[in-house]
Structures are given as structure tokens and as C-alpha cells.
Write a structure and sequence with these properties.
Low-confidence stretches: 1-16, 381-388
Helix content: 40-55%
Radius of gyration: 29 Å
Strand content: 5-15%
Order of helices and strands: HEEEHEEEEHHHHEHHHHHHHHHHH
Number of helices: 17
Number of strands: 8
Shape: elongated
Strand order of the largest sheet: 1-3-4-8
Length: 419
């Protein structure tokens, strides 16, 4: 097929919708002139595509509070180029010269030529793809070396991220993916395929690391690439990266624990009846707002723990149920008085706990939780995250988080006198 028919076929391939292919820095394969006509079969042609429709959907979600993060969809995915006539994605034949447009032949007889995609050659994804296919056909190890460089770039970015003062843990999605891969499997490509749940020709969406691992999986399932010396290096480097991420995931697992799981664990440590009632009231107040949050620095959990102690202390002192404690009473106990610093609030609370018969240095659920809250988490300037920062004792950091944000408005609304 050619001419007008070729143009009609091209309409079935959404060439304007975000295909991405890096410009290869290498020139034509050594020993072949630029005008050499390349003809070879490829098992499949995988390429990244950014989907504008999905991006629009995600923007709509971010603008509407009734949605939560679970509705977000992956904007970038890896998909297989196929024949626009029959939909075949396998055993296509490349028939082009180095500087020609990409031309694909299908066994159904369709010939598809991709027109120029961009005036700037380095941004022309179809020609960049052609060059990648030619370089890999001439030397299967070239594709492995390309991915080795991407792995090295990712490792460098991860090292820089871990060196930052406010670093807590690897990306939760990266950690879950690494934990799912059997890095000791005889065939790492297949192990990655399984963990990623790659199902060609279905589009495989994902975040940056998942897409990189998908490219590696696709490369390592091609025997010519997998069995080349550089392919063996790629498998070894990938396994090393995944093992490191698995170890880091285990070391920082506590930061990815749901906040509510930690609060329920503290609640289950038993204690006096009023203490249990205070925990029940805290969970009633925070559960709707804390459902999707993880422990991270622990500030939210500390805020809930501080709220529990406030409810307990006021309920004991006033001889009322924790559910009857009002927001102004909590705020009065929590406030930093004129001339005080956050460090002065801690001994004031500790004195009231001692008056109620709790020795902070003895065992028991109240004392154990208090020792956590009096811990000083003051960090060097610039060493904390912007959202939930650590600037002093866990008590005051936590109180600030739950009393001076939208959660404080929620607390004020639900801790009013009963009518």
C-alpha cells in the first residue's frame, strides 16, 4: 500500500498523541553506509506514549474535591506499534535507510510509512525509533547498553534523593514493584514481566521507574539482547538495583505504614477505661480525615496521640467523658502561652500527667505514648519537608498539625457542646 492508501492507513495510528522516543547519539552502525537499505524483521516494536486524554482526566480530578487519588490514571504508557490495517503487532518488517522515514511492512501486505513528525530531527520520534531499531538489529547489545545508561541515570537520581536532608523512604510505588520481583530467578526478564503484569499488546501504563523496568523486561525477553554480553550486564545491573531497593524498602517500611494502623495499635495497648474512651473518641474524630495517609515523618500520628492525651487529661481532671471534652478546652491545654516556647509546653503537660498518677518513666500505655511525644525532633534548617515539618518536640509538632490546619477546623466543628 502506498500514496493515498498509505495516508489513509496512517489515520488509524494516532501519531499526534504523544509518542516519545529518545534521539540516539550514535551514528549509523559501523561498516554500513548511510544509504544502506535496511530490511529486517522485529518481534515487536515497543514505544512510550503520553496520553493527552488521560492527562485531561487527571486535571479534572485534581480540580474536584469529591475525587481522591485512587482515580488518577497513568498518563504515560508503553504500547506496541501495530499494522493499521489488520492490527497485527508481531513480526513487522522494517524497510528503510538510516535517514529515511520509518517504513513498516506487515504480513497482510500493508506498507506503512510514518511521515515527518517534527521539523527538529532530534524530536522526530518515528525517525528516532527507526535508528534505535537499526542499531539494535546490527548489534543486539546496543539496546542493552542504552538501558544500562538509563539504569545508571536512575541510580544517580536515587542517590541524590537519598542524600537530601528530608529524605524518608523510596517512592512507595518503586518499593512495591521491587518487592514483587524475584531477583534470584533464573530468567530475570520473565520475573519482571510477571511482577509488572505486562500483557502485550495491551498498553502498559506506569510511573517513571515502572516504565524503565518494563523496557528492561521487554529487552531481556528478546534472546538476542538477553544473551549478548551487554544483555548479561543489564540483567546483573537490574538485579543489583532491585536488591538495593528491596533493602531500602525494608529499612524504611515503617514510614509507609498507614497512620490509622499505627493508631489502632496504640489503642490496643489497653490502659484505664478513660484512656480507652479517649482513644475511641480520637479515632472517631480523625478516622474520616486520616484514611489515605501514611506514617511518613509520623507527625499526623503524633498529633492524634497528643489529642488522645489531651482528651484523657481533661476528662480525668473535669470528671467527664472524653466525648464531652470541647475544642476550646483542648486548645487551651495545647496553646503556647505568652513568653513560652514549644519546649515549655512539654513539662506543663507532664506535670498534669504526674498529678493523675502517671510516672512517665514507668511502664504502661500512657507513659509509653508520652515518652514518644516528649521526644525532641528539632532538625537543622532546611532539613524537613514542607508539608509536615519537624521543628521541635513531637507533642507540639503533632498538635500544630491537627489544630492549625483544616483538621483543626474539623475538630472545632465536631467538639462543640451537645444540644
Amino acid at each position: 500500500m502506498g500514496g493515498t492508501e498509505d495516508g489513509e492507513a496512517m489515520k488509524k495510528i494516532n501519531i499526534k498523541n504523544g509518542y516519545r522516543e529518545e534521539f540516539p547519539l550514535d551514528g549509523p552502525p559501523e561498516g554500513f553506509p548511510v544509504d544502506h537499505r535496511w530490511q529486517f524483521e522485529v518481534d515487536r516494536i515497543a514505544i512510550e506514549r503520553h496520553d493527552a486524554g488521560t492527562a485531561s482526566w487527571n486535571r479534572n480530578i485534581s480540580d474536584h474535591s469529591e475525587f481522591n487519588g485512587s482515580e488518577y490514571m497513568d498518563e504515560t504508557g508503553i504500547e506496541l506499534l501495530g499494522c493499521p490495517s489488520c492490527g497485527n503487532h508481531e513480526h513487522l518488517i522494517v524497510d528503510s535507510r538510516w535517514d529515511d522515514p520509518l517504513t513498516l511492512l506487515c504480513r497482510c501486505g500493508t506498507v506503512t510509512t510514518f511521515p515527518r513528525q517534527d521539523e527538529e530531527p532530534s524530536r522526530d520520534w518515528a525517525r528516532n525509533l527507526l535508528k534505535r531499531l537499526i542499531l539494535t538489529a546490527a548489534d543486539p547489545g546496543w539496546d542493552a547498553r542504552r538501558l544500562l545508561q538509563r539504569l545508571a541515570n536512575h541510580q544517580n537520581d536515587e542517590r541524590q534523593r537519598r542524600a537530601r536532608p528530608h529524605y524518608l523512604a523510596p517512592d512507595d510505588r518503586d518499593a512495591r514493584l521491587a518487592d514483587a520481583v524475584d531477583v534470584d530467578a533464573d530468567d530475570l526478564g520473565t520475573a519482571l514481566y510477571t511482577a509488572l503484569d505486562v500483557q502485550p499488546p495491551r498498553r502498559h501504563g506506569g510511573h517513571r521507574f515502572a516504565l524503565l523496568m518494563t523496557h528492561v523486561a521487554l529487552a531481556l525477553t528478546v534472546p538476542a539482547v538477553r544473551d549478548s554480553p551487554d544483555g548479561l550486564r543489564l540483567a546483573e545491573a537490574t538485579a543489583t538495583l532491585l536488591r538495593d531497593l528491596q533493602a531500602e524498602s525494608a529499612r524504611t517500611a515503617h514510614t509507609r505504614r498507614p497512620v490509622l494502623d499505627q493508631l489502632h495499635e496504640w489503642q490496643q495497648e489497653d490502659g484505664p477505661a478513660v484512656w480507652q474512651a479517649a482513644w475511641a473518641r480520637t479515632l472517631e474524630l480523625v478516622q474520616p480525615a486520616f484514611t489515605r495517609y501514611l506514617m511518613c515523618e509520623g507527625v499526623l500520628a503524633d498529633g492524634a496521640a497528643a489529642l488522645t492525651i489531651a482528651l484523657y487529661v481533661i476528662a480525668r481532671e473535669e470528671d467527664i467523658a472524653p466525648a464531652d471534652v470541647l475544642s476550646p478546652q483542648i486548645r487551651e491545654l495545647a496553646e503556647t502561652r505568652p513568653g513560652e516556647t514549644p519546649y515549655d509546653v512539654v513539662p506543663r503537660w507532664e506535670e498534669r500527667l504526674r498529678a493523675l498518677g502517671h510516672d512517665p518513666d514507668q511502664d504502661g500505655p500512657v507513659a509509653r505514648l508520652w515518652r514518644r511525644l516528649r521526644t525532641d525532633h528539632t532538625s537543622p534548617p532546611g532539613a524537613t519537608s514542607a508539608l509536615f515539618s519537624r521543628r521541635g518536640p513531637a507533642l507540639t509538632d503533632g498538635l500544630e498539625c491537627v489544630l492549625t490546619t483544616n483538621w483543626g477546623v474539623y475538630l472545632d466543628h465536631h467538639c462543640q457542646p451537645r444540644t
